[in-house]
Design goal:
Layout (H helix, E strand, L loop, with lengths): L1 H22 L1 E3 L11 E6 L4 E2 L5 E9 L7 E7 L5 E2 L2 E6 L4 E9 L6 E13 L5 E13 L6 E5 L4 E3 L4 E7 L5 E6 L5 E3 L3 E3 L5 E10 L5 E3 L3 E5 L13 E2 L16 E3 L7 H30 L8
Parallel strand pairs: 3-10, 12-19
Antiparallel strand pairs: 1-21, 2-4, 4-8, 5-6, 5-9, 7-8, 9-10, 11-13, 12-20, 13-16, 14-15, 14-17, 17-18, 17-19
């Protein structure tokens, strides 16, 4: 009898464990990405001195999860004047869900002196409850027709070099009396012309070249950023240039919802209910049968043997 009850209990336990597994329903929820903040990069004008009054405005904007081309507003303001809309061109969405927008405008003829230009970008996303993001960048530059105009040819901007000795090559558009360069905001070093930057440590560097004419007007080159790698290649006449990109602020995506499994609340399956009733009947019948046997033994006469 005990064996029957034990087998029935094990059977019920097995059914109770397997039933929830059969009833489990798995749900997955797609990740909900939130559009990011536009990151503006002003390519031109740069923070330098120009000897021309015709300066182009050239910008690029990168944004996370941007599909809404007709809802971008890109403008510039020159010297605090009224905003002017910039025509932009959508370059498409990359595999990492970052898009790029480029913009170009010809600035009006500029007078000599210092000028400031500010670029503003506002993106609207109607599918996110009129969610709006924006960014702005400002550049200050100088127009000086008398000062020399300097163009740095090497090192190249945002380049990576696998040597500690990098040639400094540049051009100056007019006569000058003194030349100097400033590396990593250190004191200016005077030079006669093109030279070589030697013993550069590993890491990022910034370089500016200055040229002063006989009248005392000083031209300032664009700041060039470059990197010295950790592994150095054998010295060569011309440095090996590998494109490198300036770090960008990447907007973050909202955390994706982790897929979960849920078991809906349902009544007990029929097979589990039937097994429970069957077990109960067996237990009741077993107990009843045991009581009947006891009664029969008590009622039956006992016989004794006589010699």
């Amino acid at each position: 009898m005990r064996k029957i009850v034990l087998v029935s209990i094990i059977f019920i336990l097995l059914l109770s464990v397997s039933a929830p597994i059969e009833r489990a329903v798995f749900h997955t929820v797609d990740a909900n990405f939130v559009p990011g903040i536009p990151f503006i990069r002003i390519i031109s004008p740069a923070n330098k001195t120009y000897n021309t009054d015709l300066i182009p405005l050239n910008i690029s904007i990168s944004t996370f999860f941007d599909f809404y081309g007709n809802l971008r507003i890109v403008e510039y303001s020159l010297d605090g004047k009224e905003n002017v809309t910039i025509s932009t061109e959508y370059q498409g969405l990359g595999e990492d869900y970052y898009s790029t927008v480029t913009g170009f405008a010809q600035l009006p003829a500029l007078s000599e002196g210092t000028h400031t230009i500010a670029v503003y970008a506002t993106y609207r996303f109607p599918d996110y409850g009129e969610y709006t993001t924006s960014d702005s960048k400002t550049v200050t530059f100088t127009i000086d027709f008398a000062s020399p105009y300097i163009t740095i040819l090497s090192p190249r901007n945002y380049a990576r070099y696998n040597t500690t000795d990098v040639p400094l090559i540049f051009t100056v558009d007019r006569s000058f009396s003194t030349l100097s360069y400033c590396l990593d905001s250190n004191a200016n070093i005077f030079m006669e012309g093109n030279t070589t930057l030697t013993g550069l440590p590993v890491g990022l560097h910034k370089l500016v070249v200055y040229a002063t004419n006989a009248e005392g007007a000083t031209g300032i080159s664009e700041t060039v950023s470059f990197e010295i790698g950790e592994e150095f290649a054998p010295p060569s006449p011309s440095p090996s240039l590998t494109p490198s990109f300036s770090p960008e602020v990447k907007p973050t995506a909202a955390p994706a919802v982790t897929p979960t499994s849920t078991a809906p609340s349902e009544p007990l399956p029929l097979n589990l209910l039937a097994a429970s009733v069957f077990t109960l009947i067996i237990v009741v019948l077993g107990l009843s049968f045991k009581k009947i046997r006891k009664k029969n033994r008590a009622a039956s006469p006992s016989f004794t043997s006589k010699n």
